[in-house]
Amino acid sequence: MSESADQGSGRYRMLTLLAVAELLAMTLWFSASAVGPELATAIIAATVQSFLPAGGRG
Questions:
Q1: Are the C-beta atoms of 58 and 52 separated by less than 8 Å?
Q2: Which helix (H) or strand (E) holds 13?
Q3: pLDDT value at residue 3
Q4: Whether this model's pTM surpasses 0.90
Q5: pLDDT, tens digit, for every residue of 16-50?
Q6: 38 touches 44 (CB < 8 A)
Q7: Taking 60 as the threshold, does the pLDDT of residue 54 lie above it?
């Protein structure tokens, strides 16, 4: 009986670990999706500015 209870406990522990890992992975994905377009715009703007002369406009 005790072995069965331990096995059930291990299942719930593994399920909890899997759920937490999935939550953390989705959090990272959602934050990257939210910031991605703004970050891309900033990188493009910085690249364009690096090609301009020091005075600003050519």
A1: yes
A2: helix 2-51
A3: 64
A4: no
A5: 999 999 999 999 999 989 999 999 999 999 998 88
A6: no
A7: yes
Dist. CA 54–CA 4, nearest whole Å: 74
Q: Which residue has the tokens 């719930």?
A: 12
- Count CB atoms within 10 A of the CB of residue 2: 6
Residue whose entry in the numeric block shows the structure tokens 């331990």 = 6
- Can you give the three-state secondary structure of 29-56, one letter per residue? HHHHHHHHHHHHHHHHHHHHHHHCCCCC
Structure tokens at 45: 């703007």
Residue 36: both structure tokens together = 């991605």
Q: Residue 58: which residues within 8 A CB-CB, separation 6 or more?
A: 52
The CA-based angle 27-21-8, given to 5 degrees, is 145
